[in-house]
């Protein structure tokens, strides 16, 4: 039997997309976020403008995103600089979600969503400069 969802409830759009650091600056990774948000996704907070520093600028109040620091209508990446962390980007119920996924095979959290504090406390942070 299928789901009897009300017509006014937006459904998830697109699949989860992952960004993986493949060289260069960490900011480059954050700049790619704008390219993997599904083009046809309707977003409650509007489609963000992605700036060169990787910050996201929303037309109004931005959503709360783990790993981002809010300043007005801008969200700035607050993750520590680790080239092993992946970003999972998805639009669900018209809200943009960005999650940090541990990409360090030496950690118990490898392959799982991690918090900003978990990343900051990681003894194996891999900086692009290292």
Task: Tell me what the structure shows.
By secondary structure, the protein is α+β, with helices and mostly antiparallel strands. The chain has one domain. The protein is 12% helix and 28% strand. The chain is built from 3 helices and 8 strands. The strands form 2 sheets. It has a 4-stranded antiparallel sheet. Strands 2-3-5-4 form a 4-stranded antiparallel sheet, with no helix packed on it. Strand 2 and strand 3 form a beta hairpin. It is globular, with a radius of gyration of 16 Å. 25% of the residues are buried. The mean pLDDT is 82.
Observed structural traits:
130 residues; alpha+beta; four-stranded antiparallel β-sheet; 3 helices; globular
The largest β sheet comes out as: 4 strands, antiparallel
Helix content: 10-25%
- Strand fraction: 25-35%
What is the alpha-carbon Rg in Å? 16 Å
The total count of helices amounts to: 3
Number of domains: 1
Structural class label: alpha+beta
Low-confidence stretches: none
Number of strands: 8
Distance between the termini: 54 Å
């Amino acid at each position: 039997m299928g789901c009897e969802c009300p017509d006014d409830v937006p459904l998830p759009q697109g699949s989860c997309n992952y960004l993986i650091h493949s060289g260069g600056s960490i900011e480059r990774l954050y700049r790619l976020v704008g390219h993997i948000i599904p083009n046809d996704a309707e977003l409650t907070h509007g489609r963000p403008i992605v700036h060169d520093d990787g910050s996201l600028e929303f037309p109004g109040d931005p959503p709360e995103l783990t790993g981002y620091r809010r300043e007005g209508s801008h969200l700035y990446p607050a993750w520590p600089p680790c080239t092993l962390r992946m970003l999972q980007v998805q639009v669900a119920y018209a809200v943009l979600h960005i999650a940090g996924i541990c990409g360090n095979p030496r950690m118990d959290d490898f392959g799982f969503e991690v918090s900003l504090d978990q990343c900051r406390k990681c003894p194996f942070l891999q900086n692009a400069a290292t």
